Amino acid sequence: MNDAVQHIEFNGLPAIRLTARDGAQVTIMRHGAQVISWIPAGGEERLFLSERARFEAGVPIRGGIPVCFPQFGSRGPLPKHGFVRTVAWDVDAARAEKDFATATLSISDDDISRAIWPHAFRAELTVVVTGQRLDVELGVHNPGDEPLRFTCALHSYLATKEVEESKIEGLRGLRYLDATRGTEHKETGTELMIEAETDRIYFDATKPLLLSEHRRALGVSAENLPDAVIWNPWEHLSAALPDMTPLGFRRMLCIEHGAIGKPVELAPGGEWWGRQSLVAL
């Protein structure tokens, strides 16, 4: 397929569009190495992108799959969700094979990053698309002579037809932090419904999760990313966010995996990776 790998502009910023032979397609921004669109073979868009998302250097893009590194959220002294999501990454490779298409982007420390996080690092994001499946893998290498400590997440904004009619399975029995209240609980229900502002970190969420909607579903699983975050801003917060429409919360739900509760400790010369997989059902 001649157009399997396309270097394009997406809302004025450089991006890569990969199309597998079966028609599955993914678009990745160089800005933050952010997956911004995923259309499974023969399907429809499964990632949410805010109508008011900003596409500017140094500004987070509201939607897709932002890369949170080397800090998740505000759990540390760095800018919220770290700094790699708002800068341009390099494209190391992009190709289409018989059964899939893939690309790898990378970023390393520089004078700007060391001014706020004084560590040597190299991060790579590898994206693989095929059929009904999207794999996103974050890899980190510590080239320095001191230990590296970080938290991270692949902050997936999933598209929903109507979030109030969606349900999440696979969380029962897990300990979670309710960030809206600052309290910890244990999930007792077999299904989680979104009926208000929701901001939860589920710890040791190693089993696959299932997002079910009317006539469609999406499986979310991970390797080496032990925690799961469920987030929806709901009506009042959505209306207050400048890059969300007042009713945008109804069309999205963040279900993302990360290493959050226990930071990754990477020895000098060490390497680490974590992978998240989305499967349209």
UniProtKB/TrEMBL annotation:
**What InterPro entries does this protein map onto?**
Aldose_1/G6P_1-epimerase, G6P_1-epimerase, Gal_mutarotase_sf_dom, GH-type_carb-bd
Q: Which reaction does it catalyse?
A: alpha-D-glucose 6-phosphate = beta-D-glucose 6-phosphate
Coiled coil (UniProt feature): none
Q: Which UniProt keywords apply?
A: Isomerase
Q: Which domain of life is it from?
A: Bacteria
The answer on whether this UniProt entry bears the keyword Magnesium reads: no
Task: Give one Pfam family.
Answer: Aldose_epim
EC number(s) given by UniProt: 5.1.3.15
Q: Which Gene3D superfamilies does this UniProt record tie to the protein?
A: 2.70.98.10
Q: Does the keyword Isomerase apply?
A: yes
Q: Which CDD domains does this chain map to?
A: D-hex-6-P-epi_like
Question: So what family is this one in?
Answer: Belongs to the glucose-6-phosphate 1-epimerase family.
Q: What is this protein called?
A: Putative glucose-6-phosphate 1-epimerase
